[in-house]
Amino acid sequence: MELENKKVIHRLRRAEGQLRGIQKMIEEEQECMDVITQLSAVRSSIDRVMGMIMAENLKNCFIDPEADPAAQTKKLEQAINMIIKK
C-alpha cells in the first residue's frame, strides 16, 4: 500500500502544479482553448487517481474480505456505484 500511496500523492502533486499553471494562464489572459485543454488534462489526471484508489479498495475487498458478508457486499456495491456514476 505504501508504494500505491506514493504514486497517488505524486499524481496529486502533479495535478496541483497543473492547476497553478492554469491559474497563471488565466491571469495572463491566455487563449480560452488552451486553458480548457489544460483543465481537461487535470480532469483526466484526477480521474486516474480516483481509479487507482478504487482499484486498490476493490483489490483489498477480495484479498482481505471482511468477516461480515453484508458489510463486504455493501463495500462492493458502493465501489460499483462510484464507477457507474462516472
Automatic annotation (TrEMBL):
Protein name per Swiss-Prot or TrEMBL: Metal-sensitive transcriptional regulator
PANTHER family given in the database record: TRANSCRIPTIONAL REPRESSOR FRMR (PTHR33677:SF5), TRANSCRIPTIONAL REPRESSOR FRMR-RELATED (PTHR33677)
CDD domains attached to this UniProt entry: BsYrkD-like_DUF156
Cross-referenced Pfam families: Trns_repr_metal
Top-level taxon: Bacteria
